[in-house]
Amino acid sequence: MVNIPKLDRSNRSREYERYTEHERAEVVFEYLFNGSSHRQLDEKILGVPSSYSRGWQSMGILHFLGLKDAFKGIFQGQELPLVIAEFSSLDEDFKRLAYYLSIYGFGVSNPNDLMLFRLNTDIDPLVKKVGSSQFSDGVRVNKSYHDIFNPPDSKFYTERGTARAIRVLFNNKIFDAVYRYEGQTDKDIELQSIRFQKDLKDEFNLVFPFQLGEFSIAVGRDINHFLFIQPNSDTQDIEDAEGYPEGRASFKKHKSYERNPKVIKKAKSNFWKKQGFYKCEACGFRFDKVYGERGHKFIEGHHTKPVSEMKSGDTTLPEDIALLCSNCHRMVHKTPFITVGELAAIIRPGNHN
Predict the structure, then answer these.
(1) Where are the beta strands (DSSP E) in the chain?
(2) What is the pTM of this model?
(3) What pLDDT does residue 247 have?
């Protein structure tokens, strides 16, 4: 969490009172997390015509809430629930901001509900591979975690053959689910799982369309509130540096490894400055040529140095990043892995445009 500046509230409430709670909530989120300008907020959210907008409407809302220049984009790359939890622990003015962020992110008007999802750092998250079960049923809980997620001495304990209602925070949304202890006749078989409803299955399909990768299951304030944590993303500004630290091990028992997205941004920036456009370095595909404005400045970054071979503290240079279209990116990651050069050599001429 970044250092939070002091709020500097204005007494002028005219613009604040003109708009709905949901409009205020969206203005607050876009300003804090995306660094949108006042004019962008006026036009995109408040519907002020571009010919008229000077950014005064959104600026009036933000200033009344105490949000001035020091807060613009301050939480880029941060987890929304953590920011809400932090604001909720501060004074009444910050709790009001937590209220608006709760409305924007979760459709709930009581930020105290989100405090139940505050990460319990005394319990190591359970790392799971994404698989077909998450799209049809749920996720199996490893036996070593049975007594952690379903402690026998807890008032929440779920007995064999029963299930309890739980809530899951995933991708900045809250879902209903159940924690189930399967009732096999054979007492030597112990199966416990978190079972999903359709909305949570659909969310997994949205976040993991290729059914690949990992996610972590963490515990909130109590064992009826779980967090499904995706690999971290970071949208902070590019920093000029000789190298970028990568491969930091996260959690204590089950290790996963995080990529530093700043190096991809730097690699993209270097490519754009040199070429004036993006193209796939394997097949030559250009998103802007095919998709027009929607494909403008779109490309994916591929690490040519496998993270599994890196140690904590190792660095990646922009030169270690290849820019690929989505198809080629999937192909180089298909087992067995191949290099970008090897993929380019097998692409049939004329079939990639």
Answers:
(1) 126-129, 138-141, 162-170, 173-181, 192-195, 214-219, 225-229, 244-245, 248-250, 256-258, 300-303, 315-316, 321-324
(2) 0.43
(3) 46
